[in-house]
Amino acid sequence: MKTPLLVFNKKGIYCEAADVYLDPWKPVNKAIISHGHADHSRWGHKKYITHHSNVPIIKHRLGEIKVSGMEWGETFHINGVKFSLHPAGHIIGSSQIRVEHRGEVWVFTGDYKTEDDGVAVPYEPVKCHTFITECTFGLPAFKWQPQAEVFKEINGWWEQNRKDGRTSVLFGYSLGKAQRLLKHLDTSIGKVYTHGAIENMTEVLRNQADFPQTTRITGDVSKKEIKGNMVIAPPSAHGSVWIKKMVPYVTASASGWMTFRGARRRRAIDRGFVLSDHCDWQGLLSSIKATEAEKVICTHGYTDIFSRYLAEQGYDARTEATQFEGETGELEAKSEKEKEAEK
Question: Which Gene3D superfamilies is this protein grouped with (predicted)?
Fold first, then answer.
């Protein structure tokens, strides 16, 4: 029986012909990395290959590693297998990984979204025979509003809070979501302050996008200065001693999970804005159709429901287990410096 071009094993997604892994979750000799979130780029590999704009991100998170940066569409060969990276639109530097060998083409998406957020290089469909897709939000209930409408709500919320004399504290992951928020906040309303983890990552990315001026919250920044302004913080800051400096404040979370009111209540958040760096239901379906793939492998998320639906539509669809956690697991892989910055 012919061995599939890519297989899932205990270390990750493995290409036996090239002896290389894609986004492995255990240490390997050679890894091709789709993007910088902690569940996709792990420490301990001997060699990393990724898009060049992701290089400073994973170096910041993982320290000194042996890494090669590639351009979009640049082909490279490993043991006769042809690889290339293509925009995934998820966050800055996020890639789909195309693998071609003996006329067979597979594409691994990593995480991706179809809406152009104005920060990441927009998603581009890549034709293939087999498509490995995440389905973090693989339910019809997930239907995103256009980004412009969401930011109109966010900026309106901030403006009202300022009029009420309260500080706006908006939670978003330090890599990806935070920069998207910064890019589209209306800074005519007030100043933007940042948690140390957010500021550290944004400093790494400032030369890759146009972000507004921000002020890191340190012990020298007074409660009076912050009052009425916007604070961007990671979800881990909620309920911490750090946030007490913002009183009186109102909290909000920007996440696809804010679709469900129960998620907001469980997180004790005052307001939820539905804003995800992943595809919604329709985005997943349109992406798969554009690849013209016959086989689809569904990973992390609503895999069983989504793969069953695809099978009903005529696809050869199945699921595979991974250690990728999608938007539920993009919590911070903090360095000691970042931890210190939060104190």
Answer: Ribonuclease Z/Hydroxyacylglutathione hydrolase-like (3.60.15.10)
Delimit the domains of the chain by residue range: 7-141+277-331, 147-273
Pick the closest to residue 110 from 129, 136, 128 (CA basis): 136
**pTM as predicted:** 0.93
pLDDT of residue 339: 38
pLDDT of res. 208 = 93
The residue ranges of the chain whose pLDDT is under 70 are 1, 326-343
Third-level CATH fold of 7-141+277-331: Metallo-beta-lactamase; Chain A (3.60.15)
Angle at 208 between CA 233 and CA 332, to 5 degrees: 30
CATH code 3.30.365.10 for 147-273: no
What pLDDT, on a 0 to 100 scale, did the predictor assign at position 264? 74
Q: What integer pLDDT is reported at residue 328 of this predicted model?
A: 55
Q: Which of 280, 253, 284, 326 is nearest to 142 (CA)?
A: 280
